[in-house]
Amino acid sequence: MAKKYSIRPGYENAEIVASKPPHPRTDGARFILSRCTQKDLKYLHDVVLFEGVTVSSDEKAKTDEQDR
Predict the structure, then answer these.
(1) How far does CA 20 lie from the centroid of its chain?
(2) Where are the alpha helices (DSSP H) in the chain?
(3) For residue range 18-66, what is the model confidence (pLDDT) as tens digits?
(4) For residue range 30-41, what is the model confidence (pLDDT) as tens digits?
(5) 25 burial via Cβ count (<10 Å: 0-12, 13-18, 19+)
(6) Distance between CA atoms of 66 and 49, rounded to whole angstroms?
(7) Nearest-5° angle of CA 60, CA 63, CA 68?
(8) Residue 3: closest CA among 32, 47, 39, 48
(9) Rounded CA gap, 65 and 54, in Å?
């Protein structure tokens, strides 16, 4: 089951400066959350431990969409 990372409300336009991730990025160590990829959000959540990113499973996300 894959994880899906999302931005918590209130952090959508936040700009974070952290150590540069191991994957290539055009902005280096600067992260504007509204423009982040899933890979960036995973890095911020799992490595940087940034509280503005949450994680959920794809199954939960699919269930939530079906309930709408």
Answers:
(1) 15
(2) 38-46, 58-67
(3) 999 998 998 899 999 999 999 999 999 999 999 999 998 765 545 444 5
(4) 999 999 999 999
(5) middle
(6) 30
(7) 130
(8) 39
(9) 17
Determine the pLDDT at residue 63.
46
Token pair of 26 as six digits = 């055009």
Q: Phi, psi at residue 23, to the nearest 5°?
A: -90, 150
Q: How far apart are CA 10 and CA 56, in angstroms?
A: 18
> What's residue 56's pLDDT?
81
For residue 34, what is the enclosing H or E element? none
